[in-house]
Amino acid sequence: MKQTVLMTILAAAFAAGQGTPVPKFTGPIPVTADSYPFLDAAHSLVPYDLSKYGYVEQEFIVSGNANVYDWAADGSLTVKTEKAPYAARILVRRPATASKFSGAVVVEPMGAVRRFDWAIMYGYLNEHMMERGDAWVGITMPASADGLKKFNPTRYAAVNFANPNPGESCPGAKGGPSPMEEGLRFDLISQVGALLKAAPASSPFAGFRVEALYMTSQFPDVVTYLDAIHSHARLANGKPVYDGYMLRNPGAPGRLSNCGAAPAANDPRRIVAKVDAAVMEVVAQGEVPDSLAQRRPDSDEPGNRFRRYEFAGTAHIDRWAYDRGFPTFADQAATGGNPQGTPEFPLNAKCDPPFTFSTDTRLKYAYDAALLNLDQWARKGKPAPRANPIEIKDGAVVLDEAGNGVGGVRSPWVDVPVATYFPGTTPAACREFGHTVEFDKARMDSLYGNDKNYQTKFAKSVDELVKAGWFTESDGRKMKAEAARR
Questions:
Q1: Which H/E stretch holds residue 464?
Q2: What is the mean pLDDT of the chain?
């Protein structure tokens, strides 16, 4: 199709008072014993009852027309294909009543790395969001669509990301043209945001006042959207669709379409863009060496509100990303995707040293506070706290006497240590999974004398970090309880 300059389309849309279109929607889709949403709370790896928290879960099919874009090296967008039809599913978890709703919605384009939906950030944030009254919306990405259809062909019959150019062969691609166009996901993300804010009758948030949308993920979709799409995705009032972003270990952005190219090394588009929304990068110690090229200065400028937080003593991933963010193994298998490991451990590989899948809360609590700070910055104008980066020498993290990282955002576990927190394990398949080596009694006695002294120092560190905004008051209480149980 003939390419059209994107800004011309946007100017015409705003002149007509349109902005990002609100998609059509169907639902909530009924739930029966034989037909339930993929990745619903009752069929998570660790099942749970949302009603006990005063929450409801609903599933909708959203449909509309999406453009497929080309992204030039100078950052400009052009429309490669206009108004291609799509239909996707969204999974909604929100307070049952509007009076309990905080006004904030966390939107997560769900991971498709294993060809089925993975709500990794919901796994970390769910308790914090439900304490606050936040809502969560997960969006199925194109790469998981076939998995949904295999899981339940009837329930997900409408889901569709058909390639509007089915005969197009991408240069260097193997296997011929793709029947699916992954580039449809970007307008989908914008249009879901427009739907959530408009909240028309019978929609997921009808009768609720949605004040802010925050997008989060560890996968490239959010970084790509922020860098390439955010500045072009506007509501009819000219404001951005999304008010803030929390980027878990932000890597480089990906391609915008099947035949597009991801920004190459040293391309300026690989650095998170300056946008008119609050942006936070949250990076575990184990991720820092590989993400040094992504570092950029913090800023309070109106068009560049940005923070990067590097958390000492933390590994890339732990059990929190799985228990409530992962489907049961039976449901994984039903998608025809790529299940690995067991419910107790998520890899087929053997790790050295062997370890129990970590239930450490250090990273979980870090995300809780980051989301709270993001919300206060976006809605109340309160700048988020600043932190020094983790110290690096010769490409490696500088370690303290306990073997934990120096600098970065601190926690009571690294400032009042009882262990060395290794951010990775061997072989390569295990490098993202940390393990802990606790100090022996002799070392504990030399550091603290007795448990009462340890508890006192730990509690003091908690209070200082909570006061500085690095952890929430609720999580501070949980930290002290954890320390008391050790």
A1: helix 451-467
A2: 93
Question: 43 by DSSP, 3-state: which?
Answer: helix
How does pLDDT run across 406-437, given as a tens digit for each residue? 999 999 999 999 999 999 888 888 888 888 99
CA distance 243 to 239: 9
Q: Bridge partners of 435?
A: 422
The two tokens of residue 78 are: 């052009």
Cis bond before residue 95 (omega within 30° of 0): no
Q: Are 372 and 472 in contact (CB under 8 A)?
A: yes
Residues 6+ apart with CB under 8 A from 356: none
CA–CA separation, 109 and 226 (whole Å): 13
pLDDT at 3: 42
**Cα separation, 411 vs 363, whole angstroms:** 10
Which residues, in sequence order, are bridge partners of residue 88?
62
- Helix spans in 35-184 (H): 120-132, 145-151
And the tokens for 416? 């009042």
CA atoms of 463 and 470, how far apart (whole Å)? 10
Burial of 379 (0-12, 13-18, 19+ CB in 10 A): middle
Q: How far apart are CA 360 and CA 363, in angstroms?
A: 8
Cβ atoms 70, 81 nearer than 8 A: no
Cβ–Cβ < 8 Å for 63, 158: yes
Closest alpha carbon to 252 in 214, 281, 285, 232: 281
Closest C-alpha among 374, 286, 357, 353 to residue 321: 357
Nearest partner of 461 among 427, 397, 416, judged by Cα = 416
